[in-house]
Specification:
By secondary structure, this protein is mostly helical. Helices cover 60% and strands 0% of the residues. It has 2 domains: 110 residues, Hypothetical protein, domain 2 (Endonuclease III, domain 1); 56 residues. It contains 13 helices and no strands. The longest helix has 19 residues.
Length: 225
């Protein structure tokens, strides 16, 4: 079985499981028969775990367009690619500030880069850890919270059962899709997402798609990002 056919079989199984578990997701899935949950990643620069964490930290409290502009300026400092930990440590922090990163974010990224460079953190070991253990290791660094690591789990490690309860965009997407009269709390997101196991990453992708790329007939579309 090829990688593409294996992926297609996995998607078919995951969609069937989500459709049976949650009528709201069933509607979103049926409205998007050609949906590719990885399509949005094609728009991102190639990222290893450090690159994905850099991407996530950069995007903290920024809109998607502002994040993309800042990332482009960071890439320009490193000949068109996101820096490795060693490369980031070598550049003048003032250049990163000029690229649009706050001093707090620069401190976080340099702390993380230092730990990856001097052996306090081993990228191979990190990649092998279960989700919760990896989150615990990385959130020990100031400026890196669970949402930051959860995003990196999806982007860099392609973990299949991740949900981002602290992500405001996801909370708004759930509010719209489930027609709630309030913005759900993080605990409410986690409770709703229990039905999505073990495919919470895919369910999250469908909700983001419903929010940001609504179909003409979708009643759950939101008007703002």
């Amino acid at each position: 079985m090829t990688e593409d056919s294996s992926r297609a079989a996995w998607l078919q199984q995951a969609r069937a499981r989500l459709r049976a578990a949650d009528p709201v997701l069933a509607r979103l899935i049926d409205e998007r028969p050609a949906f590719d949950p990885r399509a949005w990643m094609v728009q991102l620069p190639p990222m290893d775990l450090y690159g994905a964490l850099l991407f996530q930290v950069t995007g903290q409290q920024l809109s998607v367009p502002a994040t993309r502009r800042t990332l482009a300026r960071i890439e320009a400092l490193f000949d068109g690619h996101l820096p490795s930990p060693a490369e980031l440590l070598e550049v003048d922090p003032g250049k990163l500030r000029e690229a649009g990163l706050s001093w707090r974010k620069i401190g976080t990224l340099r702390d993380l880069a230092g730990r990856l460079s001097d052996g306090r953190l081993n990228p191979d070991v990190l990649r092998s850890l279960p989700d919760e253990e990896l989150i615990a290791e990385l959130t020990a660094i100031s400026g890196i919270g669970p949402w930051t690591v959860q995003g990196a789990l999806i982007i860099a490690l392609q973990r299949e059962d991740v949900v981002l309860p602290g992500d405001l965009a996801l909370r708004k997407a759930v509010q719209a899709a489930y027609q709630l009269d309030h913005l759900p709390s993080q605990q409410e997101i986690l409770a709703i997402a229990e039905n999505w196991r073990p495919y919470r990453s895919l369910a999250t992708s469908y909700l983001f798609s419903a929010a940001f790329e609504p179909t003409e007939t979708s009643p759950g579309a939101v008007g703002e990002t």
